[in-house]
């Protein structure tokens, strides 16, 4: 099966990607994974993407699409794949649809819906150790001692992009960009919505039903 996962930052889709891929016997990847891989290997696409990123410019859709399609067309992924967080815009969805027509298109698009209030709660509580990078959350997984890492004793800090005002803006931008993508796949009958605020077990069951149903 060819599965796409969609959802705002903090919706939990990344947590589910590996388990879905394991269930289906395929590999998963995010567009970020592909960018990093191409840059690490110094490919032509990786160097082109870096040239945009280094000057703070948006990497054009055609470059991103080529990276994604190179991964999809790899014989190792002939049995299917799980793509995490791509496409993110309507233009990307249309381009991916066109590229995959000969392969039968995408089978399932799972959209993890979570309220803005819950997303802010999840994202603004995050902390990371400066030394070992162990993640914590003020509510769901707090350290034993405030601002001190359990693993190495390092200082915990909040990333700038996890501050409340920045998080709210990220959520707004995501919604503006991706709502047309959700409608794009809903019209094709491939979209399944997942309640991202349910328990982990309930989310897992809903995902399994959406993929197999």
Descriptive notes:
By secondary structure, this protein is of the alpha/beta class. It has a single domain (2-115, 164-212), classed as Rossmann fold (3-Layer(aba) Sandwich). Helix content is 48%, strand content 15%. It is built from eight helices and eight strands. The strands form two sheets. The protein has a five-stranded parallel β-sheet. A hairpin with a 5-residue loop joins strand 5 (126-129) and strand 6 (135-137). Helix 4 packs across helix 5 and helix 6 (116-124) packs across helix 7. 28% of the residues are buried.
Brief account:
The protein has about 210 residues and is of the alpha/beta class. About 50% of the residues lie in helices and about 15% in strands. The chain has one domain: Rossmann fold, CATH 3.40.50.300.
